[in-house]
Design a protein that fits this description.
Layout lengths: L1 H13 L6 E7 L3 H11 L4 H9 L6 H17 L8 E10 L3 E6 L5 E6 L2 E9 L3
Antiparallel strand pairs: 1-5, 2-5, 3-4
Helix pairs in contact: 3-4
């Protein structure tokens, strides 16, 4: 039985994705706001995407810029890839946990405040020349 477990571990390591990636979790911005920015930079050159994110006036642009910069640093430092050849292959956002708060209203009533969070994942790839 232990032999089969080792074989599965070896197969998992061989089939693992070798592309540089980065992930940020529990960002305090709702996923719908994050996806608006992600759709603009998907498929672009990574350095061009960083410049685009610098010029955006959006609450989700800063955390997205940080995770794209982190993925670029991973590609350069950990895998020895060239920064200028990197393109954003996959970038997506998944919803994180939701905080539920109460807002006190008139006449003894209360409204619910929903504070959403999101997880952002970036996977880079080299340009096919």
């Amino acid at each position: 039985m232990a032999k089969r477990i080792k074989e599965k571990a070896i197969a998992r390591k061989q089939n693992a994705d070798k592309r540089p990636s980065a992930k940020v979790t529990y960002v305090g911005v709702s996923p719908s706001k994050v996806r608006l920015v992600l759709d603009l930079i998907r498929g672009k050159n990574a350095e061009l995407a960083l410049v685009m994110l610098d010029g955006m006036n959006n609450s989700s642009a800063l955390p997205i810029r940080k995770v794209v910069a982190s993925a670029l640093a991973n590609a350069e430092n950990n895998l020895g890839m060239n920064k200028s050849d990197m393109v954003i292959a996959e970038i997506y956002c998944t919803p994180g946990p939701t905080l539920k708060r109460l807002s006190i209203r008139a006449r003894g009533k209360a409204d619910r405040i929903i504070k959403r969070s999101s997880h952002i994942t970036v996977i880079l790839d080299q340009v096919k020349a």
